[in-house]
Amino acid sequence: MITLCIAAVALAVCIGAYPSGFQGVLERKAYDARVRLSERLGLGSDRTSGKTVIVGIDERSIIRDKPLLFIYDDIGRFLKRMDEYGAAVVGLDMILVHKQSEKLGNAARALLGDRMDRAGDAMGRTMEDIGERLDRSVLEPIIDVSERVKIVQVVHGDLVPFFYGVSPFIKNMTIADASLTDGAFDTNDGVIRKQVFPASERPSFASALYLLTTGRPYTGGTVFINYRMAGAVPFFRFDDVMSGKADKRSFAGRTVILGYINGYEDVHATPLGLDISPGRPDGGRNMSGQKGAKMAGPLVQGLILETMLTAASVTEAPLFAHIIILICLVAAAYAAVIYLKPLHTALTLAGMIALFFIADLVMFSHGYYVHLFPQLAAPVIVAVMVYPYRYFVEEKMRRKVQKVFGYYIDKRVLDTLVEKDSEALLAGESRKICIFFLDIRDFTQLSTTRSAQEMVQFLNFFFGGLTGIIQRNAGFVNKFIGDGILAFFMTGENPVGDGIAAARGIVAETARLNEARGFEKFIGGWEVRVGIGIHYGEVILGNIGSEQKMDFTIIGEHVNITSRIESLTKEVGAAVLISDDARVAAGDGVFCREVGHFNVKGIEHAISLYTVD
User: Are 528 and 462 in contact (CB under 8 A)?
Assistant: First the structure.
């Protein structure tokens, strides 16, 4: 009962990890480990829908050719090219915040300062005109291309593009939120594992792209990103697209995501922990094992969209399922700790943990997400909490019992008794057992013809062999009473069957020794015969005596009845007599032959006695 209570406390500790938040910290790390392991082992699916293409603007290569502010013109030309190539949807994962007409005009005025004159004013107006042309170089293509191509423009809180005010009047343009919901540092560690789609007026970037790509809203809820597709979604450098190196057929009918790939802005940690390096001219990507590397936002958004399109998100098991799994693991660990020896317990718990991890990884790769923590730690927690009590209390009791009974109880029988209830063994208990009583026929007459030394040697030799037979049949030799043996059977599946098997073995061994003259050196030519009584009933089993002398024995009326049944073997002329209670307890698997009804002292009515061949 105490160990059960300790196991219940261990279960409560594991369940308490959920509201405490401690479980979330470990589970996030375990989630990342499964993603990386699945990637290395090739588990799960990396199949894409073939509908998504990512184009990355590497600012470093743009700056080598011209100032960054002229990117507006390049983006306008890119939109026209996507229209020419037949793209279905273009997602702009970038925010053109600055209105260049204001930006350049203000820059000119700030540069001239107090020296503003007619020439300076003209320079300011010239810079504003340049900025105005830059603004038109992107806005006009957006307005024109949106007539034929659906466009999604991201915003981020108050950060909006300079043309945000006229966006409601631009045909086929959707304003979407660029936020990655799993990246907030106040609730997470910054690693992007999933995207939550809360109900809000402004759709997320990925959900807006999904709606325009499929024509239907996404209803799947939270998306756990399938990073197995990280090397499979087509990627092109912006420079290659604008120079015509990219095959235009790669964009026809596709959803194209355009964003910055610069390594310092809009980059996020992922469970992969790999550097996703753009650069293959065929639209693929190289993946290297650079530790601590991060992934650019457009790549993450593309993987979210592909996970939605391919329905590759894992389904997280509900809380009640995790608690049921916890209960099963705690119960299995408790059984191992209680019923196995320390080494076997350690091996069993290690095997249990390994099997659970493998099963969890297989389920994860097939789209089912079951937490590893605290489930994985539950067997260890149970062992750490339960085993010390068992060792210091129960093992102490076990050692005491083994010390008390080890000299006169067979080790296998003792181990069985101790495993069941060592305290009851010391205190005494009532239990139904098979009682076995053996007596040597005519021993008194024999003892008058031989010396005391010869009789002791004979008994030691004969009883030594009989003890071995009894013990091999799961029996316990309780005591030697002169020329008799009191034994009992209680640990096997069929105690009476064990007792009958021992009786047959003893009768056969006695006949063999008589025939081989095995007793001749002790008692001459005397033929040894035995009588055995077998009965089944309830006795008191325990350590009885005083501080000066203790004896582990069985007492009760059924012990006396067994002795009286054995005494009838002479009258019946049978070596073995079995009571009706023992025959019933033996079941149909043991064949017994009835020899008659007899009155036995201690039993009010005549009972049937049986024998075996």
Answer: yes
Fill in the DSSP letter of residue 197. Answer: -
The pLDDT value recorded for residue 331 is 94
Give the angle subtended at the CA of 476 by the CAs of 470 and 477, to the nearest 5°: 80
**Domain extent listing, the chain:** 2-25+317-393, 46-98+148-311, 406-611
> Residue 494 has what DSSP assignment?
S
Token readout for 217 is 């809203």
Main-chain dihedrals φ then ψ at residue 511, nearest 5 degrees: -65, -40
Q: 3-class DSSP state for residue 580?
A: helix
Exposed, middle or buried by CB within 10 Å (0-12, 13-18, 19+), for 114? exposed
Q: How much is the pLDDT for 285?
A: 46
Mean pLDDT for each consecutive 10-residue tract of the chain (613 residues)? Answer: 85 82 81 88 88 88 66 92 96 89 74 59 75 88 95 91 89 91 63 80 90 91 88 88 91 95 80 62 45 78 94 90 93 89 89 94 91 90 85 69 59 59 62 94 88 92 93 88 91 90 95 92 91 94 70 86 93 93 88 89 87 85
Angle at 303 between CA 302 and CA 309, to 5 degrees: 90
pTM (two decimals): 0.65
d(CA 33, CA 412): 46
Please provide residue 534's backbone torsions phi and psi, each rounded to the nearest 5 degrees: -125, 130
Q: Which residues contact 84 (CB under 8 A, 6 or more apart)?
A: 248
Contacts of 74 (CB under 8 A, 6+ apart): 62, 238, 242
Among the four given CATH numbers 3.30.70.1230, 3.40.1440.10, 3.30.565.10, 3.40.50.10810, the one describing domain 406-611: 3.30.70.1230
What are the φ and ψ backbone dihedral angles of 145, each rounded to 5 degrees?
A: -65, -35
Q: Contact, 250 vs 234, CB < 8 A?
A: yes
What's the angle, vertex CA 83, arms to CA 80 and CA 84, rounded to 5? 90
Please list, in sequence order, all residues whose beta carbon lies within 8 angstroms of the beta carbon of residue 97, skipping any fewer than 6 positions away.
159, 160, 161, 162
Tell the residue number behind the tokens 């049944």, with chain if given.
Answer: 565
Q: How many Cβ atoms sit within 10 Å of the Cβ of residue 289?
A: 11
Pairing of β 150-155 and β 275-278: unpaired
Backbone φ and ψ of 399, nearest 5°: -65, -35
Tell me the C-alpha to C-alpha distance, in Å, between residue 109 and each of 104, 106, 122, 124, 612: 9, 5, 10, 6, 121
First-to-last CA distance in the chain? 47
Spatial separation of the C-alpha atoms in residues 219 and 230, rounded to whole Å: 23
